[in-house]
Amino acid sequence: MTTYVLRRIGVGVGLVLLVLTLIFLALHLVPGDPAMLLLSQGDGGSATPDAVARVREQLGLDQPLLTQYWQFLSGALTGDLGESFRNGQAVSEAIGERLPRTLELVGLATLIAVVVGVPWGALAARRGGWFDSVTSVLTSIGVALPVFVFGALLVLLFSLKLGLLPAGGFTEWGDDPARHAQLLVMPAIALAVGFASTVARMTRSAVLEMLHQDWVRTARSLGLSRRTVFRKYVLRNSLNPVVTTVGIGVGTLLGSTVLVERVFSYPGLSSLLVDAVTARDYPVVQGVVITIAVLFVSINIIVDVLYGVLDPRVRR
């Protein structure tokens, strides 16, 4: 198991280095001079050659390409992601402020999706009949409904009509825990609905496939109860594709938070990225993209390790 885990971590480190290289190449292969773009400020005017030269020196763009690549790589690996063009704040510090908020939101949405989706899909596969039909309809709606539409409906119902929850905003846990939880509920549910529907559909399909295996009939013929066979053997052997779905879904949620954070005025990592793109704050954009890429690779490593725990054959 240790060798398997170390091998997966090694692959993950290689992927992170590849992503960093692609980000560096993307910034340098895109047509146009970043210094000119930064100085133009979108008004169509042209900057003086001296001003462009100063900005290029400030950004390190006057250095040889290999030197720039090494500085970029060493900075990323040591957490030095530069400073924001807008306010001079260290990019790592800005990301450090926003990242825990987004991780908290994604973590709660994932917890809701797994706690609701796995039992829901397993029960639909086991009971069948009208419950399975209703599950298929509801999960289809949940998958098809855009997250920002569902978020707006939650605000309309629970904030404007019923007045039960605040429409949006953010409060630190240390300042007011109750208010913090209230402001987190609706964004997390808006993110979790589509995810829970996907998990339920995948769980249902995996359990149905497992229920028709020969070894399940053999286990029942040996005298084991349906409940014991289902709980101890069928459900566990159905979890591999569900783990894959959850792993991919968590990565997708990191992207989906862009819309949810806008709808609920939630100051997370995605809001920081949108604001940086709007202001052409390249160091912040670069830092956020690197952070999301590292998170995505880390999630895939965790999923691979879970594969090895659930199915020892994967470790070979």
From TrEMBL:
Signal peptide: none annotated. SUPFAM superfamilies: MetI-like. CDD domains: TM_PBP2. It is found in: Cell membrane. Keywords: Cell membrane, Membrane, Transmembrane, Transmembrane helix, Transport. PROSITE patterns: ABC_TM1. The chain crosses the membrane at residues 9-30, 105-125, 137-160, 180-200, 241-264, 284-310. The keyword Kinase does not apply. One of its GO terms (biological process) is transmembrane transport. Residues 99-307 form the ABC transmembrane type-1 domain. Pfam families: BPD_transp_1, BPD_transp_1_N. InterPro entries: BPD_transp_1_N, MetI-like, MetI-like_sf. GO terms for cellular component: plasma membrane. Belongs to the binding-protein-dependent transport system permease family. This is Peptide/nickel transport system permease protein. It comes from Nocardioides zeae.
